[in-house]
Design goal:
The complex is a heterodimer of chains A (about 350) and B (about 325). Chain A is globular and about 60 Å long. In chain A, helix 10 links the parallel strand 14 (about 290-295) and strand 15 (about 320-325). Chain A contains 12 helices and 15 strands. Helices cover about 35% and strands about 20% of the residues of chain A. With about 350 residues, chain A is of the alpha/beta class. Chain A has 2 domains: about 5-215, Rossmann fold (3-Layer(aba) Sandwich); about 230-355, Rossmann fold. Chain A has a 7-stranded mixed β-sheet with strand order 4-3-5-6-8-7-13, sandwiched between helices. In chain A, strands 10-12-11-14-15 form a 5-stranded mixed β-sheet, with helices on both faces. A 3-stranded antiparallel β-sheet of chain A has the order 1-2-9. Chain B is globular. In chain B, the strands form 2 sheets. Chain B has a 6-stranded parallel β-sheet, sandwiched between helices. In chain B, helix 7 (about 165-180) links the parallel strand 3 and strand 4. Classes of the chains: A alpha/beta (about 350), B alpha/beta (about 325). At the A-B interface, helix 3, helix 4 and helix 5 of A face helix 6 and helix 7 of B.
């Protein structure tokens, strides 16, 4: 990816595919308490460590075991934990999601993989009518400790049915937690939290970020839900982003700095619960805000952030909140059309300039 | 071709069950029916609202099967027609009636209503409002039992109207593929809401034909006959426990009331309903008890009276219970971590 990295993403050396592991749960020990991992490895490592700690965790999904995962996120887990805990399911999303709800109601902590979140729509009723409401409609009798994970957002040139970004859809429903990390550090820390708490979590990964590398601590850590992270400091405009949009925003911010506009890039990390306090804090400083996301514009994250800024920071805004989203069309296949559909840096740059009246 | 019904010798089964257990089951069936009749009255008096799907006529099915289950080790799940399963799991009727009244003392604190009865202690996993949505949940409980080596089984109840849903087929496939101790019980009351089974299913014998496709054993029994239900359950549940394999069961049954209380029942004749009322499962058990001289008229009246009083008491409890505090609105949306 031609993405300029945030300072925290600078690495002493990249992974060497000839000598280093490039997937599985083992990072490359850098000798000073840190390790080099990719997003893919960070998620696998969190699963590995928590499965070692907690025998009630099992992993189920299509191709997660013998095939090592369609995107190799679960590579090696079958060898360590065996077929009782790492289970290839038939292509039956509604079935294995509902099954996970029943397992969660009877003492287990299921992790299910949607090969992509596009396929979660087949399981929509189980996610919404069962997982999201169970604790409430049973008066707190049946919490659902369930992690639903898989890649979300547009893959490379996979067109209309394989390019959905589901952050906003699932954030709509009370009872669900929606998480979407942009870095290896965040991915591991958030997955640790997801595996240790008692609510259904939509853990949205991004295929285009799986290979992104970072040095992270070897020691155990967890990142609480609902805490945004400042990925770049600036004074002129706040860019609120999540997942892959964070990297497009950093790229745009680097370009804008050349013309004297310093952007603050705030990575939500958790879409629900939303860290509105961090957004307001940043907007009080910059007085401007642009939201960048892969969801659609109508009812998207930007719509929610803009509404909440109006409620909580109305007097601090010097310009309307800008929204850079996936354009409102199904994803086309043609390269040039796909490029214009996604919230790429050139569109972010235009939106920030508009917010700054430049 | 209709499936061959599971055959029993009623006298032999009656004697195998014995006086005490048969009396206990008769009382359970009475309790379920009187509870629901009282709920229906309260609904018509607008003391309770929402949907109310009654099990009246189908009592022999769940009663016969719960007699062989151990709620708490074994799990159960069912549709929105869930009152009987909760009572037979051992949930007290005070909290159930209070739930229908939407009170703070209700089974799920007034947050569920008629369609959502649950018990953690008894592993009664609901009470589900989406047709067929509970079948994978029951499958998950069977998976969990096998994973934890608990020795338990799960039973998923659903109607004939749920068998065309994808979740039914997905669950059967997984359960058979992985050898899960799961019982799938089609309570074929002949109508999915107002649509006759023959208008929504391409075949007549649901369990027999579907089970073959998933490499499963099936049973079909007369769901209006407690003896058939009890004996079939005894054999089938023992098979599931012994072999750790799922089974698909079809109970041929009938509901006297509409799909829900608001259903006028224009899709079937009064004569049809009356014909089935003559086969009433509770009356038949009482007749068998009398025939065996295990129950006198005086004893029967005493039990009837005791059940009526018990139900009246649960209504009083519900009426006198407070509504939930408004602060409850936002509790339990998320579980504490």
């Amino acid at each position: 990816m031609s993405t300029p990295l945030a300072p925290s993403l600078a690495v002493r050396r990249p992974l060497n595919p000839k000598t280093d592991p490039i997937n599985g749960h083992k990072g490359v020990d850098l000798g000073d308490g840190s390790q080099l991992v990719s997003v893919r490895m960070a998620i696998c490592q969190a699963l590995y460590e928590e499965m070692n700690r907690d025998p009630s965790i099992y992993v189920m999904g299509e191709e997660v075991a013998q095939y090592n995962g369609a995107y190799k996120v679960t590579k090696g887990l079958l060898d360590v934990f065996g077929p009782e805990r790492v289970i290839d399911s038939p292509i039956t999303e509604s079935g294995f999601t509902g099954m996970a709800v029943g397992a969660a109601m009877t003492g287990l902590r299921p992790v299910i993989e949607f090969m992509s979140w596009n396929f979660s729509f087949v399981a929509f009723d189980q996610i919404i009518s069962n997982a999201s409401k169970m604790n409430y409609m049973t008066g707190g009798m049946f919490p659902i400790p369930l992690v639903m994970r898989g890649p979300n957002g547009a893959g490379p040139r996979v067109s209309s049915q394989h390019s959905h970004a589901v952050e906003a859809i699932y954030s709509h429903f009370p009872g669900l937690i929606v998480v979407s990390p942009s870095t290896p550090y965040d991915a591991k820390g958030l997955m640790k939290t997801a595996l240790r708490q008692n609510n259904p979590v939509c853990f949205l990964e991004n295929e285009m970020l799986y290979n992104l590398e970072q040095e992270i601590p070897i020691a155990d850590y967890a990142i609480p839900f609902g805490q945004a992270d400042l990925k770049r400091e600036g004074s002129d405009c706040t860019i609120v982003a999540v997942s892959r949009s964070v990297h497009w925003s950093l790229e745009a911010a680097a370009e804008l700095a050349k013309e004297g506009i310093e952007c603050e890039v705030l990575d939500l990390r958790t879409v629900k619960p939303l860290d509105i306090d961090a957004i307001v804090r940043s907007v009080r400083k910059t007085n401007r805000c642009v939201v960048v996301e892969e969801c659609y514009r109508t009812g998207g994250i930007g719509a929610e952030v803009a509404a909440q800024l109006m409620e909580f920071a109305f007097d601090d805004l010097d310009a309307p909140v800008g929204r850079v989203t996936t354009t409102e069309n199904p994803m086309p296949y043609a390269a040039n059309l796909e490029h214009e559909t996604l919230p790429k840096p050139h569109r972010i740059i235009a939106a920030v300039r508009a917010a700054c009246y430049r | 071709m209709p499936a061959q019904l599971y055959q029993v010798d009623p006298i032999a089964v009656r004697n195998e069950i014995g006086r005490d257990r048969l009396l206990a089951m008769w009382r359970q069936m009475l309790l379920v029916r009187r509870f629901e009749e009282r709920a229906e009255l309260a609904y018509k008096a607008r003391q309770i609202a929402g949907f109310l799907h009654l099990y009246i006529g189908q009592e022999a099915v769940a009663t016969g099967w719960f007699a062989h289950l151990n709620p708490g080790i074994d799990a159960s799940v069912t549709s929105y027609r869930c009152h009987a399963q909760a009572i037979l799991s051992g949930v007290g009727i005070d909290e159930l009636m209070a739930e229908l009244y939407g009170k703070a003392t209700g089974n799920v604190k007034g947050k569920g209503g008629s369609m959502h009865f649950f018990s953690k202690e008894k592993k009664m996993l609901g009470g589900h409002g989406i047709v067929g949505g509970q079948i994978p949940v029951g499958t998950g409980a069977a998976f969990s039992a096998k994973y934890r080596k608990s020795g338990g089984v799960s039973i998923s109840f659903f109607g004939d109207g749920a068998t065309p849903q994808g979740t039914f087929h997905e669950s059967l496939n997984m359960a058979s593929l992985w050898g899960l101790p799961a019982i799938y019980m089609i309570e074929n009351n002949q109508y999915g809401m107002g649509t006759a089974c023959s208008r929504s299913n391409a075949v007549e014998s649901l369990a027999e034909t579907k089970a073959i496709g998933y490499g499963m054993k099936s049973y079909t029994f007369d769901g209006l006959d407690l003896f058939a239900s009890w004996k079939c359950a005894q054999e089938a549940i023992a098979y599931v426990r012994r072999e750790s394999k799922p089974i698909l069961v079809e109970a041929k049954t009938y509901r006297y009331r509409g799909h829900s209380v608001s259903d006028a029942g224009l899709y079937r004749s009064k004569e049809e309903v009356d014909r089935y009322k003559e086969l009433d499962p509770i009356g038949r058990v009482q007749a068998a008890l009398h025939e065996a001289k295990w129950l006198s008229d005086v004893e029967a009246e005493a039990i009837e009276e005791e059940v009526r009083e018990r139900v009246a008491a649960c209504v009083t409890f519900a009426e006198q219970s407070p509504e939930p505090a408004l602060s409850e609105l936002a509790t339990h949306v998320y579980a504490a971590s």
